[in-house]
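Working notes for the structural subgroup meeting. M.R. asked for a predicted model of this chain before we commit to crystallization trials. I am recording the input and output together here so anyone reviewing the notebook later can reproduce the run.

Input as submitted:
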Amino acid sequence: MADIKYYDVIQKPVVTEKSMNGMADKKYTFLVNPEANKSQIKEAVEKMFEGAKVKKVNTMNIQGKNKRRGMIVGKTAKQKKAIVTLTEDSKEIEFFAGL
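Returned structure, recorded in token form:
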């Protein structure tokens, strides 16, 4: 397992109706590196977004789906999703403000 830097942990935000509803409770959803653990995710969010203080991190592994094209069978890549909850006195993440 290679050493993961904080800027390699967060891959992209998840923009769905359910994740947008969670933003009212200061819960933000990201796709993260499958090798990253909760403490690395917490560190990455606090360093990348100014003024953000993480209260809790929930993670879930998403297995790859089976896909077919004719007789050829393959799998999509596995992913990891993290739901980051910020503290009450923390600043909002401005990346989601325009969405």
